[in-house]
Design goal:
CATH class: Mainly Beta
Radius of gyration: 20 Å
Structural class: mainly beta
Largest sheet: 6 strands, antiparallel
Bound molecules: fe (ii) ion
CATH architecture: 6 Propeller
Number of strands: 33
Distance between the termini: 45 Å
Number of helices: 0
Strand content: over 45%
CATH topology: Neuraminidase
CATH superfamily: TolB, C-terminal domain
Number of domains: 1
């Protein structure tokens, strides 16, 4: 095992890459996997083949999957994504295709057993890279996403229908290519973040830089709109890592996101409002803690949400490392937050919400996540009841090995026959 004193944090302990691909069947389960939880949890993350990389966000992507069916954990698989640029950030399933994503390249399609199919460009409609944070509209089944690139117009917005055909595409002129990791949707709009974080030295492990002279703006665009329909809202300088969710309240758009006043500073939950009548933006802090990896129930994406799940990042080092994480369920109406205690040596990863089949209620769901161990011992897939977040897990699936602490996961429920 790597020695944390001599190697960068992202190559040691819970973060260290693994060196083999494996397939294990019929995993040990502690507790009871709900019988109607049928599908596959898939999580992406960097796993450098060479065993080393300059930063946590670098390195070839590896998918880890756990198949739940009939109250059993049928298999665990981990697979590097194959090809010239294995996307390492996230995964999405839309119109029957499972896509591995990284914001600098086009998607790579994989099978339900995590084998690589190859690059996918929406039948030629995708002209460049694709965000790693596309949104599936729960009302229409559409996939909304964008491409952010170094050449003008820098930003292109796409909407694919429920069958996966790109039916709308709009070039959006922005002054420069900014760091734009995420965006948001509401019932009628999409919201883009054009913030003072520009590309820096590409040889740097984190190739971004802050620009005090670059105006911070949010762009609100009707889902069917083009550049001329964009409404821009000026805001105080800030950076955003991830979207929690957004929704409409009359003529006001409410956006919850993970924000920091500038780069290399702790991010926290923040609520922005954009008044379409007055053209004014406002903002308020929702929770002061340093947290990230926000998730909501998939049925409330673009609609009013009450619950959010985050991971608090703790025990920072000067190298940008963190050595402890805390999983939290937020009630954004009351401001209350509930912690699930996984033990002192645990590092819970992103919480993914798995709806109970037939129900769209935010609390009538399970929360699925990987729980890693600081000492680098084996990982567990944990299933919590969303209505009793602090209670002991409904089920714990013991993986046969360690899955490195990674980035974003998704629950891919079996589709109705
Ligand atoms: Fe992300």
């Amino acid at each position: 095992m790597s020695n944390p004193d001599t190697v960068p944090f992202h190559l040691a302990g819970a973060f260290a890459p693994v060196h083999e691909e494996r397939t294990d069947v019929e995993l040990e389960v502690i507790g009871e996997i709900p019988a109607d939880l049928r599908g596959t949890y898939v999580r992406n993350g960097p796993n450098p083949r060479a065993g080393r990389s300059p930063a946590w966000f670098a390195g070839e992507g590896m998918l880890h999957g756990v198949r739940l069916e009939g109250g059993r954990a049928r298999w665990y698989r981990n697979r590097w994504i194959a090809g010239a640029y294995p996307p390492n950030t996230s995964v999405v399933r839309h119109a029957g295709r499972i896509l591995a994503l990284v914001e600098t390249r086009s998607p790579v399609e994989v099978t339900a057993e995590l084998e690589t199919v190859g690059p996918y460009d929406f039948g030629g409609a995708l002209g460049g890279a694709m965000t790693a944070h596309p949104k599936i509209c729960p009302r229409t089944g559409e996939l909304l996403f964008f491409s952010n690139g170094p050449s003008r117009p820098h930003l292109t917005y796409y909407r694919a229908d429920a069958a996966g055909r790109v039916v709308h595409r709009a070039a959006i002129e922005v002054p420069a290519m900014t760091f734009m990791h995420d965006f948001a949707i509401t019932e009628r709009y999409v919201i883009f973040y054009v913030l003072p974080v520009l590309l820096g030295d590409v040889r740097s492990p984190v190739p971004i830089r802050w620009d005090d002279d670059f105006p911070a703006r949010f762009g609100v665009l009707p889902r069917d709109g083009g550049d001329e329909d964009m409404r821009w809202f000026d805001v105080a300088p800030c950076t955003i890592s991830h979207t929690v969710n957004a929704f409409e309240e009359g003529d006001t758009i409410v956006l919850d996101a993970v924000r920091a006043p500038r780069i290399m500073m702790p991010h926290a939950l923040h609520r922005f409002t954009f008044d379409l009548s007055s053209g004014r933006a406002a903002g308020t802090a929702l929770d002061p803690r340093f947290l990230d990896f926000p998730r909501v129930h998939p049925a409330v994406v673009g609609a009013r949400h009450r619950r959010a799940y985050t991971i608090e990042l703790c025990d920072f080092g000067a190298d940008g490392s963190f050595s402890r994480t805390i999983a939290r369920q937020h009630d954004l109406e009351t401001g209350a937050a509930v912690v699930h205690d996984f033990g002192d040596d645990a590092m819970p990863g992103e919480c993914v919400v798995a709806p109970r089949p037939g129900s769209d209620a935010e609390d009538d769901a399970w929360v699925i996540l990987f729980v890693h161990r600081r000492d680098g011992s084996a990982t567990e897939l944990v299933v919590l009841d969303a209505s009793r977040f602090a209670s002991p897990p409904v089920a714990r699936v013991r993986l046969p090995c360690r899955a490195p602490l990674g980035l974003h996961g998704e629950w891919l429920p079996d589709l109705a026959a």
